[in-house]
Amino acid sequence: MKKTDKQSTLEGEALPKPIFRSYKPTDEALNELLLEPATPGDVTSEVEEQLESAKSKIVIDQLDVTSLAPRKPDWDLKRDVAKKLAKLERQTQRAIAELIRERLKERSQTENLADLVNTGVQDQT
């Protein structure tokens, strides 16, 4: 007879053994795979230590207030806005430079006009 693939894999490999943590098997042969129930640890000493530490009063002079609060509470706002501010700063500098150029052009034109008027007055006399 020809063996199927499923039968050949079952014979070649051992099946995993189950581990029973909370299930109590009814078959006596499976009782040996049953894990023993876990015993809770002793936490009374830890609780007593915490209660003792809670009873002691902390002197405010010993407590450093600056270590509790952040130094700069708006650091995340500055981080988020920094790129936008840099862009606006560049635009502001360009606008200021353009205004200065316009004023210089106006002054140079008015000075030239004033020079022309002055020379024209001098020529008539």
Automatic annotation (TrEMBL):
Keywords: Coiled coil. It comes from the Eukaryota. Pfam families: cwf18. Residues 78-105 form a coiled coil. Residues 1-22 are annotated as: Disordered. This is Coiled-coil domain-containing protein 12. It comes from Molorchus minor.
